[in-house]
Structure formats: structure tokens, C-alpha cells
Amino acid sequence: MERDLGSPWARPSTFCLVPQCFVRPTELRKAADECKMRFAHIDGDHLTLLNVYHAFKQNQEDPQWCYDNFINFRSLKSADNVRQQLARIMDRFNLKRSSTETGHYLTVKDNQIVQLHPSTCLDHKPEWVLYNELVQIAPQYYDMSNFPHCEAKRQLERIIAKVQAKGYE
User: Can the keyword ATP-binding be found in this entry's annotation (predicted)?
Assistant: First the structure.
């Protein structure tokens, strides 16, 4: 399956690049938490942020709507700006996002094969995943023949060659 990473797929990633969008004033914590829960998505925080972004756009980017819903207006405007930049870059380079049918995913950057961390709270396999970080936990990655051909593999091979040349094995 292949998906275009344009508009909707790029939106959650933009929130990783801007300040927290939820405002939680000390004296109004309960009301702020209740507002946040209205945006909550069963599939996790990134889709919760996507719900916030969609509501923001549906309300014509209204600063008063943000204030009433304990949302940081500037964060959403920044996220929208980053999303537009990402969409332009992806259009320029004709980037596509592909997932495999084997329970694994391929990263956009270097087609590295990855999968969900065992501690994930997800109870199903989503069509696509946005990673905050990649953690190497699988022993098969220590065998370089199993590692997919990508820039990360080439860098690891250079490091291994240097280590072997210095006799640190």
C-alpha cells in the first residue's frame, strides 16, 4: 500500500517541531483537561493533535476558539506553517510513504524496515505510523546481512570496519 505524505499525513509530525499546543493554567486545570479530552483519539497522541488541528481549521483559525479550548494559538499557527513547508518539500521531491503487508513499516528517509515497539498501547496495526524516535531492540539488527540497504547500514558498515581495523572486536 502506498500513501501520499502530503497534507493529512504530514500534519501530526509538525507538532513535534513546535511548542506544546495545550494550555493548562493552574487555576483552570480541570477545565483544561476536560477540553483536551474532547480532542482525544483512541489511536494515540499524534491523532489527538490531528483532531486539534482539524478543529482549529474548521473554526477558521480563530484565536478566541483557541482561548476557549485552552489551545496555544501561536503553536497551531507555527504547526500550520511547518506543515505547509513540509508539503511543498514533499511535492518538490515527489515523496511517497509505503508500508509493507508483513506487519513492518518502511521509513520515508531511507526505507529502513521498522515495527511497533512491544510496549505500544495500540491494540491493532495501523496503516501508517509516525515515529518520535527509533529504538533498536531486535537482535537480528546485529547481523548486518539482515539490515536493509540504506544510509544507516552504510554508516554502520563504516563504523564496524573502523572498529575491526583497530582490533576492538
Answer: yes
The answer to whether the pTM exceeds 0.70 is no
Residue in 45, 53, 47, 23 with CA at minimum distance from that of residue 35: 23
Q: What angle do CA 10, 14, 15 make, to 5 degrees?
A: 130
- The pLDDT tens digits for 88-110 are 877 788 775 444 455 677 777 77
Nearest to 53 by CA among 32, 42, 31, 69: 69
Handedness of CA 78, 80, 111, 139 (dihedral sign): positive
Q: How far is CA 22 from the centre of its chain?
A: 18
